[in-house]
Amino acid sequence: MDDPTPEVADQEAPSSGIAKAQPEVGPPLVEMVNVWKRFGQGAGETVALAGVDLAIQPGEFVTLIGPSGCGKSTLFNMIAGLTDTDSDGSVVFKNKPQRDGELLGKVSFMPQKDLLFAWRTVLDNATLALEIEGVPRAKARARAEAMFPEFGLAGFEKHYPHQLSGGMRQRVALMRTFLFERELMLLDEPFGALDALTRAMMQRWLLEIWEKHRRTVLFITHDIDEAIFLGDKVVVMTARPGRIKTVETIDLPRPRGAEVITSPEFIEIKRRLLGIVEEESLKSFASAGAS
Ligand code: ADP
């Protein structure tokens, strides 16, 4: 670990003068140090990640944005413990380098698809991770039932997933992720398939929940507004092979309501990030055209 907080060098000084929501003190909860990932070999080799350095502090809400194919899901899978890093670098969790699936079970995650089981009720879907963990069914159910009101699902315990709207299904999947109480929560585009209005409501709701529970979150998105609105930090990745292009600290005050997205500070951050993201998206587009 030559440089424990490599992203700090890239950050611009906050322009708003508002105190930071999450001061960066102490060791990171998770740190990626020179992380590489290659798939295939020889002419068929794809370099998905090429020296990623990223630190996530305890309690932070970090959003990650980058062009399609830049390695976001690969990074997600690595932090979830589903994929190993190549031997060049390491993923460090609470100061300990992690190998061979060691991270599995230490992190709760919600993949892009909600993965609700059609044949299980909403309540039984919510308790799934707890049951797999060995929590007795009655106890798991009691814990889940207590969270239904907070997740806007009271009265839907015995419904089946097909009886719910898209937003409600995502809340069930999120509730399952919250119930699997881990210090780090990974969310891969949880609102990607929702209409704009539902999405905006879900973002505000997620912040309320997060402010109450204060878990550390890594949230992947394609949407710059979403990344800025939610995050303490927005991490921008380069076109493939994925590296960290920049890390923008978002000093917008919390709690954040709908009015935040029309504030001059928000618009200025968006203008800056759009330029960077568009540059990378064009590179990604060009290389896809060339191959
Ligand atoms: P993103 O989530 O940013 O769209 P991914 O992490 O899914 O990107 O993929 C990064 C690159 O790695 C892509 O070019 C993808 O085709 C490649 N890739 C991902 N997983 C595999 C795999 N299991 N085998 C081969 N190539 C893969």
Structural features, described:
- With 291 residues, this protein is of the alpha/beta class.
- It starts with 29 loop residues before the first strand and ends with a helix.
- The N terminus is likely disordered.
- Helices cover 33% and strands 20% of the residues.
- The longest helix has 27 residues.
- It has a six-stranded mixed beta sheet, with helices on both faces.
- The protein has a domain of 187 residues: Rossmann fold (3-Layer(aba) Sandwich), CATH 3.40.50.
- Bound molecules: adenosine-5'-diphosphate.
- Adenosine-5'-diphosphate (ADP) binds next to strand 2 and helix 1.
List keywords for this structure.
four-stranded antiparallel β-sheet; 20% strand; disordered N terminus; binds adenosine-5'-diphosphate; Rossmann fold; 291 residues; six-stranded mixed β-sheet; AAA+_ATPase
